[in-house]
Amino acid sequence: MDMIFDALNPAADLLRSGFNQVNAVLGLIIALIASFQLAAWKKLWEMALAALAFHIVAQLLAPAIDHGASIRLPALMDIATWRGWLGIYVGYVILIAVFYFLRTRLLRPAAAPHH
Fold first, then answer.
1. Exposed, middle or buried: residue 43 (CB in 10 Å: 0-12, 13-18, 19+)?
2. Would you state the torsion angle of the CA atoms of residues 14, 56, 45, 85, taken in this order, to the nearest 10 degrees?
3. 100: in domain
4. What is the value of pTM for the model shown?
5. In terms of Cα–Cα distance, which of 77, 68, 88 is closest to 22?
6. Domain total of the chain
7. Is 72 within a domain?
8. Which helix (H) or strand (E) is 29 found in, with range?
9. CA 115: distance to chain centroid?
10. 6-28: per-residue pLDDT in tens?
11. Is the residue at 113 inside a domain?
12. How far is the C-alpha of 30 from the C-alpha of 48, rounded, in Å?
């Protein structure tokens, strides 16, 4: 049983770290906007990928906008960068799905009045 938990622990750490990054203010805002742009469940994966792209761009531009620092590209050849992005992507999939579910259940359009 310990072998199973040891094998699943890296995957759980990846999900936990990605969800923690998405759960910050920037991630919540991006996920909320993405959930309102989402038209159907089948587009969830694409919307999460777009949210990840916006997240990466925002992280790249934030130091330049805030402190006038130079823009530093991420280490694209580093596996840790890709793992982090995968975790963030999964976090966006989960969060956008939750927001979209709540939006479709709680914010239904009012029925047209009958004449």
1. middle
2. -20
3. yes
4. 0.77
5. 88
6. 1
7. yes
8. helix 25-37
9. 45
10. 777 776 776 666 666 666 888 88
11. no
12. 10
Establish if 68 belongs to a structural domain: yes
DSSP string, 77-108: T-HHHHHHHHHHHHHHHHHHHHHHHHHHHHSP
> Which tokens sit at 74?
């991420």
The range of the structural domain enclosing residue 24 comes to: 15-106
Out of 2-6, 22-26, 76-80, pick the least confident: 2-6
If you search the block for the tokens 């590209």, which residue do you land on?
A: 73
- Cα separations in angstroms, 42 against 39, 69, 93: 9, 39, 12
38-46 long-range contacts (CB < 8 A, ≥24 apart) are: 38/96, 38/100, 41/100, 44/93, 44/96, 44/97, 44/100, 45/93
Q: Which secondary-structure segment (H or E) carries 30?
A: helix 25-37
Token output for 68: 């006038």
Is the Cβ–Cβ distance between 72 and 60 less than 8 Å? yes
In this structure, the number of other CB atoms found within 10 A of the CB of residue 110 comes to 5
Integer Cα distance of 111 and 1 in angstroms: 54
